[in-house]
C-alpha cells in the first residue's frame, strides 16, 4: 500500500471515529427515549413506548426550568453581546503597549473557574442587597460570555479595511453613519455567530449558575438535582426534542444562506451583463 493510500485510509478512519464519538452518545440517548424502562438506558430493552413524552409533558418543574434557562440566555444576549462588541471596537483602536495587558485582562474571566465566578458574583452583589435569582445569573454568566463575543468580533475586525472608514468620513458621513452603514453590516456575520455561541454557553452553563440562581432553577441545575434523586427517560425525551429543534434551525439557516448566495450571484451576473 502506497503512502498516499495509507494517508487517505487514515484520514477516512479518523473521520469515522470522530463522527462516531460525536454522534453515538446522541443516538443512544435518543434510543433510550423509546425504551419502556424507568431508567434512561437502552439495555435491557423493555419494549418500545412513547409514554416518556407524556411524562415530559406532565413535568411542570422541568418546563419551568427550561423557561428559566431560555430567559437567562436571552438576558445574557442583551448584556454580553453589546459589551463584547464595544470591547472589541475599543481594543481595535488601542495601539499602545497597554493593549496586551488589556487583552489579557478582558480574557481573564475565561480562565477563571466557573465556581469562582459564581461565588464572587454572589458575595459582591449581596452587599447591595441583590440575592440569587435569574437577574444575578444573567450578570454572573455575562462576565465571561462577553469575552467570547469579543473574541469573535475581534477576529472579524482584523480583516476589516480601515480605508473604508476614512473614505466615509472624508465624504461627510458622521461616526454613527459610518458605523451603521459600513462597519455594522461588515460585523453582522460575526455578531450573529457570537450571539448563537453566547446563547448556547448560557443555556448549558452549570458551575456559575449553581451558585447564583438562588431559589430559581435552570435546566442544567434541575437535571443535576434529578441525577441525585433518579433520572427518568423524560429527560431523554426533552434532549431529543432540543436536538430536533437545533437541526431544524440549522437546516433553515443553511437554506436561507444558500438562497442569499444564489441571489447575490444572480445580481452580479446581471450587473456584469449590463
Automatic annotation (TrEMBL):
Keywords, alphabetical: Cell membrane, Membrane, Transmembrane, Transmembrane helix, Transport
Membrane topology listed for this record: Multi-pass membrane protein
Listed GO biological process terms: transmembrane transport
Cellular localization per UniProt: Cell membrane
Annotated TM spans: 12-34, 70-91, 103-125, 131-154, 183-203, 234-253
Gene Ontology CC entries for this record: plasma membrane
Pfam families for this protein: BPD_transp_1
CDD domains tied to this protein: TM_PBP2
Primary localisation category: membrane
Keyword Transport: yes
UniProt domain ABC transmembrane type-1: residue ranges: 66-253
Similarity comment: family membership: Belongs to the binding-protein-dependent transport system permease family. CysTW subfamily.
Name of the protein in its database record: ABC transporter permease
UniProt source species: Halomonas urumqiensis
Amino acid at each position: 500500500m502506497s503512502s498516499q493510500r495509507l494517508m487517505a485510509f487514515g484520514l477516512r478512519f479518523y473521520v469515522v471515529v470522530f463522527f462516531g464519538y460525536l454522534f453515538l452518545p446522541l443516538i443512544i440517548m435518543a434510543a433510550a427515549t423509546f425504551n419502556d424502562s424507568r431508567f434512561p438506558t437502552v439495555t435491557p430493552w423493555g419494549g418500545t413506548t412513547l409514554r416518556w413524552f407524556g411524562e415530559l409533558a406532565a413535568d411542570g418543574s422541568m418546563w419551568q426550568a427550561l423557561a428559566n434557562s431560555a430567559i437567562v440566555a436571552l438576558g445574557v444576549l442583551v448584556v454580553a453581546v453589546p459589551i463584547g462588541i464595544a470591547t472589541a471596537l475599543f481594543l481595535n483602536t488601542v495601539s499602545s503597549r497597554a493593549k496586551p495587558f488589556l487583552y489579557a485582562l478582558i480574557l481573564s474571566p475565561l480562565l477563571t473557574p466557573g465556581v469562582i465566578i459564581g461565588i464572587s458574583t454572589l458575595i459582591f452583589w449581596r452587599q447591595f442587597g441583590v440575592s440569587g435569582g435569574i437577574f444575578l445569573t444573567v450578570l454572573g454568566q455575562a462576565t465571561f460570555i462577553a469575552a467570547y463575543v469579543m473574541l469573535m468580533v475581534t477576529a472579524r475586525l482584523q480583516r476589516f479595511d480601515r480605508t473604508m472608514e476614512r473614505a466615509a468620513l472624508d465624504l461627510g458621513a458622521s461616526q454613527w453613519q459610518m458605523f451603521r452603514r459600513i462597519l455594522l453590516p461588515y460585523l453582522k456575520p460575526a455578531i450573529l455567530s457570537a450571539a448563537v455561541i453566547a446563547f448556547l454557553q448560557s443555556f448549558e452553563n452549570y458551575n456559575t449558575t449553581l451558585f447564583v440562581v438562588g431559589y430559581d432553577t435552570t435546566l442544567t441545575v434541575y437535571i443535576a438535582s434529578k441525577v441525585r434523586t433518579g433520572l427518568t427517560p423524560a429527560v431523554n425525551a426533552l434532549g431529543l426534542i432540543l436536538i430536533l429543534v437545533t437541526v431544524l434551525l440549522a437546516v433553515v439557516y443553511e437554506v436561507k444562506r444558500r438562497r442569499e448566495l444564489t441571489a447575490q450571484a444572480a445580481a452580479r451576473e446581471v450587473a456584469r451583463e449590463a
